[in-house]
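Throughout our pipeline, every protein is held as a single compact record rather than as scattered files. Such a record has a labelled line for the sequence and another for the backbone structure tokens. This encoding replaces a full spatial description with a residue-level series of whole-number codes. For reference, a complete record is included directly beneath this paragraph.
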Amino acid sequence: MIISRSEINHVLCAYSNQAVPAAKGPAGAGGGLGRGTADAVDLSARAREMDRLRQAIAALPDVRPERVARVARAIADGTYQVRDDDVAEKMLGRSVVDGIA
């Protein structure tokens, strides 16, 4: 999805026109919406696992040097093979994505 600057400005204008009730007194003093309690977030076990996986994926290298070396050797040796079907599938898939965007 592409969001234009005018759409962002429209949303900002809509939200800036809304009145926001001001909290009375310091946070947690009983005058605000929090009823004297601090804000808290309780993440489910699934959310914690998703965060752990996201961090593990972020730690992976962008390039796998052993695979790059293997492909480079195959190209240099003249043994690197690409299936015609794979090339055609990628080309068609890309043209569909380009047509949608």
Notes: The mean pLDDT is 80. Helices lie at 5-16, 45-59, 65-77, 84-100. The first helix runs from residue 5 to 16. The CA atoms of residues 65 and 71 lie 10 Å apart.
